[in-house]
Each structure stands twice: as structure tokens, then as C-alpha cells.
Amino acid sequence: MFSPRSVSQVDSRKATVALARPGDLVEAQAMMQEVLQADLGGYRPQWHRDLDDLEAAYLRRPGCALIVARESSGIVGTAAVIPCALASPPNPQWLARRYNQPDVCQLVRVWVAAGARRRGVGHALAERAVAWSVGPGGYSRVYLHTDAGVPGAEAFWRSLPTREVCDTRPDPFNTVHFEIDTEAMLRTHQC
Fold it and tell me: How many Å apart are CA 147 and CA 174, to the nearest integer?
């Protein structure tokens, strides 16, 4: 269940995880661009246009949020929440109908800098994003998809309380679709 503490700052080992503020955006954008280039094949306008103006995409848009993880060295991770609006194609029509609902958000841009991985930063970001989603965000369900071709991505999401909804492989994007069990996530990880 949601509690006010769920959206406050928490520490994940050395990282502080919290809602992004305007002063975080330049650094968050740089970190996101770095991960995008190094791990995800680079910027594609049709998918990554939100990175051009994080403030408009996440801080000024209703139903959206950007979460950042900060260590002493700077921002090391991000997670974002947006209203779910799956396109079909490439997604199956039944999937778009199921999740393109006012009570459903999509978890996106859960990216961690290479040097901060495997230390709980991704988990803390996902937890914070889910807590915001079912609290101030007003959503009741959290959807996400991942590119299973990215090393560690599928295993990461399966390590959390998720349920696979659809595996569309061998599509060109190696896509696996999940829904997060929000109650289990917040109960298990005690945000």
C-alpha cells in the first residue's frame, strides 16, 4: 500500500533516489544519453524524443514523473512514469486495448550508468517509480516492456514482482511485456 514515505528520498546503499527537480535535468539527460549510446543502440527520434526536453516530458506533463538516483559522483540512474499509450503495431492490438486505460501507467527509462549497476540502484528506482505511480500519480496498474536482447534487462525485471504478460520475440526488438504487482513490490521492498 502507499505511504507518504514511499515517495520521499531513500538510500540505496550510496545512492539517494528521489523525484527529479529542474536542477537535476541537465545531468540526468547526459547520463541517459550515455546509457542510450553505450547500451541501447543510440538515439532514435521516434522513441527517444522525450530526452530532448525532460522538463516538458516529465515535470510539466500531468501523470508523469522522472525519478533520479544520485551518488556523490552525480546522477547514476533514472526511471520515468508516463500514461500508458501503446501503439499497435508494433504492439499486439489486444495488449494496447488492455493497457491503454486511464488507470495504467508505463514505467520507462529505467536506466543505470554502467559504474553503478548491480548495487540495488535499479531496484530502488523501480520501487520509487511504483510508489509514485500508485500514490501521487493516481494509477492502479504499472506496465512496462523491455528489450530482452539488452544484457541483464530481462533478468532484472524478472527479479522484481512482475508478471509476464506477453513475449513477442522474435520481434525485431526482443520485446517482453510485464505488469508489476504493485502491492507486492511495495510490501516486499518496504519503500
Answer: 5
Q: List the 104-112 sheet strands across, edge first.
A: 10-12, 15-19, 65-71, 74-83, 104-112, 141-147, 175-180, 162-167
Q: Which CATH number characterizes residue 185's domain?
A: 3.40.630.30
For residue 21, what pLDDT is reported? 97
Give residue 103's pLDDT band: very low, low, confident or very high (50, 70, 90). very high
- Three-class secondary structure of residue 92 per DSSP: coil
Compute CA 153 distance to the chain's CA centroid, rounded to the nearest angstrom: 12
Number of domains in the chain: 1
Structural domain harbouring 83? 4-189
Burial of 92 (0-12, 13-18, 19+ CB in 10 A): middle
Residues of the chain with pLDDT > 70, as a percent, come to 91
Reported pTM:
0.90
110 membership: H or E segment, kind and range:
strand 104-112
- pLDDT value for 191: 43
Res 3: pLDDT: 37
Bridge partners (DSSP) listed for residue 75: 70
